[in-house]
Specification:
Shape: globular
Number of helices: 5
Strand content: 15-25%
Number of domains: 1
Largest sheet: 4 strands, mixed
């Protein structure tokens, strides 16, 4: 169990490169903006770990892209709020891409790839 805990701390540390959405008010401000990519991430899910690696690959290539992290265990209210506001059923891991508050793309699980993020961010 100790090794598993260390693994999750490494994931959390890597995620610190992505700004975390901490409230529904912050979520509203981001939804009102020009462009935002929300990454709903579970620290305990192996599929989410794969998706996280893909998001980080994308961030390496486009460090200024407006990607925002929603850690689902710690920010359940934000994850639910995003689902309510966008009308997209909650899944984890999940990427929501919005332009001026409109959902341009919503993918989950193994559909989350750096290539997909490059395509929707273009």
């Amino acid at each position: 169990m100790e090794g598993q805990t260390a693994f999750f701390y490494v994931l959390l540390e890597e995620s610190m490169n992505i700004p975390e959405v901490t409230s529904t008010h912050e979520c509203d401000a981001l939804l009102a903006g020009e462009f935002a990519i929300f990454f709903k991430h579970s620290l305990t899910c192996p599929v989410s770990h794969f998706a996280h690696r893909e998001v980080m690959r994308f961030r390496q290539a486009q460090p200024d892209a407006p990607v925002y992290l929603v850690p689902v265990q710690q920010r359940r209210e934000v994850a639910r709020y995003l689902s309510q506001r966008t009308g997209v059923r909650h899944e984890s891991p999940q990427i929501l891409v919005l332009r001026r508050g409109e959902v341009m793309a919503a993918v989950s699980h193994n559909e989350i790839t750096a290539e997909l993020l490059h395509a929707v961010a273009a």
